Amino acid sequence: MTDDYAEELRRNRAEKDDFFAEHPQSPIPPEERDGFDGLSYFDPDPTYRVEASVTRHDDPEPVEMETTDGRVVRYLHVVTFEFDIDGEAATLQGYRQAGDDPGQLFVPFRDKTTGQQTYKRGRYMELEHDGELADGDTVTLDFNLAYAPFCAYSDTFSCPLPPEANWLDGAVEAGERTN
Questions:
Q1: Are 146 and 88 in contact (CB under 8 A)?
Q2: pLDDT bracket for residue 1 (50, 70, 90)
Q3: Tens digits of per-residue pLDDT, 92-114?
Q4: Is 135 a member of any domain?
Q5: Do 95 and 74 form a contact (C-beta atoms < 8 A)?
Q6: What DSSP element (H or E) covers 102?
Q7: Residue 152 domain flag
Q8: 42 occurs within a structural domain
Q9: Distance (Å, rounded) from C-alpha 153 to C-alpha 52?
Q10: For residues 150 and 96, what is the distance between their CA atoms, to the nearest angstrom?
Q11: Domains in the chain: how many in total?
Q12: Where is this region: Disordered (predicted)?
């Protein structure tokens, strides 16, 4: 990880803090915005930028994810990512909803920081790429970009919960944190 990347990450985090503090669509309730002094993050760490091998699922399996308000939303399991993190082999599933841009993937996950140092219901990553991923492609999963969903800040939002297939065994000390 270069100093330029770490600085860019810090700038993006500052922009997000400004959005949360001032924007009308911020998930921070209006009555709490004056006291909001920014989100908490782990320091940028190159260890948590991992190269992942892609397995594409040509006939994506529907996955029903529970949400924070008790509803269920349906996603398609379109890819599986295989990677090493902290010296251990791991996998995560990538999802999208029917009709979504094939270049956008949703990667919700839990890890050993969940409920301790990070939001109690898990965090999200989004992966953007050009077109469809193919079997054997390699992509970078950057856990430094992991974030808590809006429902972590307000009950007015409903958020999908990471399915058990996306529960990592180790602690991922990267991205947004709660303390």
A1: no
A2: low
A3: 999 999 888 878 999 999 999 99
A4: yes
A5: no
A6: none
A7: yes
A8: no
A9: 31
A10: 18
A11: 1
A12: 1-42
